[in-house]
Amino acid sequence: MFYWLIELSNTVPGFGAFRSALNVFRYITFRTGGAVVTGALFVFLFGPWIIDHLRIRQGKGQPIRSDGPQSHLAKKGTPTMGGLMILSGLTVGTVLWANPLNPYVWIVLAVTLGFGFVGFYDDYLKVTKQSHSGFAGKLRLLIEAVIGLAATYALVRLGRDVSSTSLVIPFFKDLVINFGWFFVIFGAFVIVGSGNAVNLTDGLDGLAIVPVMIATASFAMIAYLAGNAVFAEYLQIKYVAGTGELAVLCGALLGAGLGFLWFNAPPASIFMGDTGSLALGGMLGAIAVAVKHEIVLAVIGGLFVLEAVSVIVQVVSFKLTGKRIFRMAPIHHHFEQLGWTEPQIVIRFWIISVMLALAGLSTLKLR
Description:
367 residues; two-stranded antiparallel ribbon; 15 helices
């Protein structure tokens, strides 16, 4: 919306006097900052109302697993679907500050809201049935895959050159693997995998949202650099025209995430739920595919990868040998069983996320 004010200053009589002041809306950095503030303010202002509304509607809140850590039983009655707060702030911040003519913004936002809807329906079934068996797993993955395939196809069509179907290998200037149209399947896998990895990480108060914000801040920088021809040439990374605008969307998520963390800090007043975790993970995956940094996502989001791999290893080991590798999966529950307190796990995982983000950002220069 604010971006349109620039066009008005150039076409509508009487607005010319404000042209110099309105010119700041041309800068991605300025609008990213505005999106951060807008997203945060929206969640701070409307968060309490959303929490009260969800608490009344949900009654018993999110069901707590009886076979999980006993300390979690104290959280019984806490409402879920807190992702609605984040998605609302994210959407408002993006609509107000992003360039409405940029297709990358709408593609990534569509993936985010699409995954959010899938997560919302899953949370809805769990709350109404007071059961952990929500959306049928295969059907849920199928819908996510369709969204991922459609988004990746759209991103490839936007690229219109051979690099749009190629995988860039970090740390090397010219090592590129061209997947052809198979890249559409690969990109969808990245998006779906990212969504579900973040979903598995969301198990403790504040555990998922801060690593998501750390990864989002990292990709805001990557998107800005990849969308700038001068910086991309200097860093020897793939220049993708138009992706710089994704930094504004990332800024909106950062602000909304900060607002949500205010209410999600231990003891949480609300849980993110699949509504938020699936959406935010899908968004990170879509941004990584758009800016051609899919492998870097696995580094920056290494914590999410670890959580997902721990579940896969646990399931495969139990089916093949009847034995479990971890005391409980995902791995954050394993550390709970070892005697770590919830704040210890959460803060230590935050530290790991920061270190992984620095490692991922280092690939921008070490080529």
